[in-house]
Amino acid sequence: MGEDTLRERPGETPQPAQAPVLVRLPPHLVVLFPGAPRLVALVAGSVAEMVDGLDARWPGMRERLCDETPAIRRHINVFVDGRRARLSTPLAPGADVFVITAISGG
Fold first, then answer.
1. Which among 52, 26, 58 has a CA at the least distance from the CA of 39?
2. Under 8 Å between Cβ of 72 and 65
3. Peptide bond into 90 cis (omega under 30)
4. Which of 23, 32, 75, 78 could form a disulfide with 102, with the two C-beta atoms 3.0–4.6 Å apart?
């Protein structure tokens, strides 16, 4: 990266870079998407934007996480900084996001 890419350009207001959120994906999900790591850093302002970002990198991931309403699927839980989240939940820069698959049985 050249030095001039780090400098402010004349007439432009410098924009602070938004810190990415850290998304932890369950092993059962990443095996379906070759090359997907368990820990993903991406810039997103909400859980819905996070899902869009994941789907942009690994097409089809949205369908695994969300239903057609759209909402997070019944057997998927998303936690943001330890609190259960919905698609509309905002994400602060640097937020910790866990995507967890529910385990059921008898």
1. 26
2. yes
3. no
4. 75
